[in-house]
């Protein structure tokens, strides 16, 4: 059997070949992504993408576990990282450990991801010391969108740069093996990438990061709204529409099923 990419292998890619990552929430798409990605994120964005929620705030732990399991089953090569949803880790290191351990035991994933900088350092240290690899996530952190007043690009005001830098350094010092930098201006992402010893994984954070991640459905053209930081590599929306409309027409005209699809 092909061994999966390990946490130390991702960690060792700092400053090297760019790390490739995408989200996946389900087995068949994950199997395709698995052939190209170094790690696959089962992101809590699945609340919006798969379940029509307005934000990630309402995503429950069991939903992350369900999709995490599907992605682990559907893949064999990439490291699978599962997001800890809002409310399952912020309260204390103990609560975070219990929920992270549940995610790892129930899904078979190789690491968890959680949002927050310096304020999460103690928790990250606690988890890593006890056998749970942690990917951190700083910059624009969607689970705090109510505090931030929406999804705001970070670092437009350079007086905030030191605090953003300190957040990234704090999670690296605490033992995170990589950090997602989301929605921040290019020079800030470049500065953080220079400063921290762990790989930075950018989403809306410029080409200067050590790797990139996108939400799969966004880059496949399935999201009716395309954020500025997304490059659309496929137009699955129109392809699905075309297939569904032709199927509907064939059913109505009795052109489907044909001789080929019938049991004799
Ligand atoms: O939930 C998610 O998809 C994420 C990535 C965008 C980093 O956290
Ligand atoms: Na997320």
TrEMBL record:
The keyword Metal-binding is annotated on this UniProt entry: yes
Pathways involved: Cofactor biosynthesis; (R)-pantothenate biosynthesis; (R)-pantoate from 3-methyl-2-oxobutanoate: step 1/2
Gene3D superfamilies in alphabetical order: Phosphoenolpyruvate-binding domains (3.20.20.60)
Name of this protein: 3-methyl-2-oxobutanoate hydroxymethyltransferase
Gene Ontology molecular function, alphabetical: 3-methyl-2-oxobutanoate hydroxymethyltransferase activity; magnesium ion binding; methyltransferase activity
Entry keywords, A to Z: Cytoplasm, Magnesium, Metal-binding, Methyltransferase, Pantothenate biosynthesis, Transferase
Residues that, per the record, bind Mg(2+): 44, 83, 115
Transmembrane segments: none
SUPFAM superfamilies recorded: Phosphoenolpyruvate/pyruvate domain (SSF51621)
One Gene Ontology term, aspect cellular component: cytoplasm
Cofactor: Mg(2+)
Provenance organism: Loktanella fryxellensis
Residues annotated for 3-methyl-2-oxobutanoate binding in this entry: 44-45, 83, 113
Active-site residues (renumbered): 182
Assembly: Homodecamer; pentamer of dimers.
Chief location: cytoplasm
Subcellular location: Cytoplasm
Recorded superkingdom: Bacteria
Cofactor note: Binds 1 Mg(2+) ion per subunit.
Pfam families with a match to the protein in the record: Pantoate_transf
E.C. no: 2.1.2.11
A biological-process GO annotation: pantothenate biosynthetic process
Record's catalysed reaction(s): (6R)-5,10-methylene-5,6,7,8-tetrahydrofolate + 3-methyl-2-oxobutanoate + H2O = 2-dehydropantoate + (6S)-5,6,7,8-tetrahydrofolate
Statement: the UniProt record of this protein carries the keyword Ribosomal protein: no
Record family assignment: Belongs to the PanB family.
Function: Catalyzes the reversible reaction in which hydroxymethyl group from 5,10-methylenetetrahydrofolate is transferred onto alpha-ketoisovalerate to form ketopantoate.
């Amino acid at each position: 059997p092909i061994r999966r990419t390990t946490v130390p292998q991702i960690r060792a890619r700092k400053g090297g070949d760019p790390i490739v990552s995408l989200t996946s929430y389900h087995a068949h798409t994950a199997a395709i992504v698995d052939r190209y990605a170094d790690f696959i994120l089962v992101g809590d964005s699945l609340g919006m993408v798969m379940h029509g929620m307005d934000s990630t705030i309402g995503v429950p732990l069991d939903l992350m576990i369900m999709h995490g399991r599907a992605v682990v089953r559907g893949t064999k090569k990439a490291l699978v990282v599962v997001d800890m949803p809002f409310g399952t880790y912020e309260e204390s290191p103990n609560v975070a450990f219990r929920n992270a351990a549940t995610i790892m035991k129930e899904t078979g994933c190789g690491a968890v991801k959680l949002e927050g900088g310096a304020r999460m350092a103690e928790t990250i240290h606690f988890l890593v010391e006890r056998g749970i690899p942690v990917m951190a996530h700083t910059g624009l952190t969607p689970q705090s969108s109510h505090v931030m007043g929406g999804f705001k690009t970070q670092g437009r005001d350079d007086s905030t740069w030191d605090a953003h830098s300190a957040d990234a350094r704090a999670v690296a010092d605490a033992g995170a093996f990589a950090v997602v930098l989301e929605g921040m201006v290019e020079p800030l992402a470049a500065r953080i990438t220079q400063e921290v010893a762990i790989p930075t994984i950018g989403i809306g954070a410029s080409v200067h990061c050590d790797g990139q991640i996108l939400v799969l459905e966004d880059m496949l053209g399935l999201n009716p709204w395309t954020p500025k930081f997304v490059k659309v590599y496929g137009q699955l929306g129109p392809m699905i529409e075309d297939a569904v409309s032709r199927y509907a027409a064939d059913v109505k005209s009795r052109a489907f099923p044909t001789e080929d699809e019938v049991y004799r």
